[in-house]
Design brief:
about 160 residues; Putative membrane protein; about 0% strand; Four Helix Bundle (Hemerythrin (Met), subunit A); 6 helices; Anthrone_oxy; transmembrane helix; mainly alpha; membrane; elongated; transmembrane
């Protein structure tokens, strides 16, 4: 049982850390770079990024962070580790909810607009996407996932102290 507990905690920490990196990279690099482009480039590039990110690597990290953290919470043996894992789980549930309720619908609406070559009003489509809203909620995802990662890192420290 010890090996399963530690494996779940390590997997939760690794996948959550990866997701913090993904959300952070979008926040301070991808969206910042796309913000400086014209409407056609923004729409085309964002659509391409959104199609590319739906892959087994991303989905393993995105869903894995939730599943492994839940498993780590279920398997946590005592009061020393459990509060940290539960805090991480709650934070990541918030991230998961924001992603499903805000970011994915905005992404899907932008993809549904079609190819930039066939869009008559590129500025209108970009404005309807609402970059500011997408980016604001992504900042929340970045902060919450980074905090969840920190909680899981601390849970590992505590686990190591317990022996």
């Amino acid at each position: 049982m010890f090996a399963l507990r530690v494996t779940a905690l390590i997997a939760a920490t690794m996948t959550t850390g990866l997701m913090a990196g993904v959300f952070g990279l979008y926040q301070h690099t991808v969206m910042a770079g796309l913000a400086r482009t014209d409407d056609r480039t923004f729409i085309g590039a964002f659509q391409a990024l959104d199609r590319a990110i739906i892959n087994p690597w991303f989905m393993t990290g995105f869903a894995g962070a939730l599943l492994f953290t839940a498993a780590a919470a279920i398997l946590s043996p005592g009061r020393e580790i459990l509060p940290w894992v539960l805090a991480a789980l709650v934070l990541y549930i918030v991230v998961f909810g924001i992603t499903v309720a805000v970011n994915v619908p905005l992404n899907d609406a932008l993809k549904a607009a079609g190819s930039p070559d066939s869009i008559a009003d590129l500025a209108g489509v970009r404005a309807a996407f609402d970059e500011a809203r997408w980016t604001a909620w992504n900042l929340v995802r970045t902060i919450a996932t980074t905090a969840a990662f920190g909680c899981l890192c601390w849970a590992l420290v505590v686990r190591g102290r317990l022996g």
